[in-house]
Write a structure and sequence with these properties.
It contains nine helices and 14 strands. By secondary structure, the protein is an alpha+beta fold. The chain has a single domain, classed as D-amino Acid Aminotransferase, Chain A, domain 1. The strands form four sheets. The protein has a five-stranded antiparallel sheet with strand order 1-2-3-7-6. Strands 8, 11, 12, 13 and 14 form a five-stranded antiparallel sheet that branches.
Amino acid sequence: MTPSAAPPASAASDDAALDAALRAQLGRVLERTAFTGLAGRGPLTRYDGKVRDCYIDAARGERVIVVTDRLSAFDVVIGLIPFKGQVLNQMAQHWFEVTADLAPNHVLAVPDPNVMVVRECRPLAVELVMRAYLTGVTSTSIWRAYEQGARRFCGHDLPDGMRKNQPLPRPILTPSTKAAKGGHDVSVSADELLAQGEVSAAELEQAEAIAHRLFAFGQARAAERGLILADTKYEMGVLADGTVVVIDEIHTPDSSRYWHADDYEARLARGEEPRSLDKEYVRRWLAEQAGYTGDGPPPPLPDDVRGEAARRYIKSFELVTGRRFEPDPREPVARIAAALGAS
């Protein structure tokens, strides 16, 4: 048998350089910021999400978003992943740019690899979750519901006889309530969402149309790159003039489930999980190796799991965008402070 050829020297050296960069960055992750002022801006209101630190300038109608290295899964922050914030912010920037003709968005500027300046708007109290496959590992996933006998999910009928990770008959929109920090999101039908009274019918109609357009575009782009966009979530807001715009992020590994297309069918036939590029890797490690599915404080992530998660985020960026990821290894808080004139 002829031995496998060694990888090109350039590829091997690139891998070695990335491994070294990730090891060095394990102790230099961006956990949080605590700025009290930003150059040229008046009083700020601060809001911290699961992954993002936000500084709201009400006078200018703008928000400065710092994307940290925090990783959220099972609706809790479970650890810190090197370069994750840079990957997410730059991938979101990519998608906001290439979908600008499909849907208006809130982006104004990207002054740092971890920072996005956006228009302030009223966020819709819903996550627009688009699904094309019967999958998931969380207790609220479509697969868990199906496995337990449900044949109707968020107002959509599901056929009998399906297996995990199979394509759904068609992509479906499954809205989810947005839980407060520390709470759990709940999947609902459109009718249930409207009955709660927090989103108007007109706003939901606009948001649904945008979600379907973006998902179809994202699936097509993913297929061109040898990937499957299995599902994703969108967040949207309303500007002062009533325009519904896309906010937060689009098609990043935090909001989307990407699978490799080349061996999907073979792995499905063998009952194996698809090869994924998203944070499903960490969710699966927590569930299978640590027995954690979201209840109580999460166990610490080993460095090798953090490093592998970072590699997957970076690989996702490069595969999806077709661009090489160039990390900025400088101490992140000082670098961001300099870019924003922060104190």
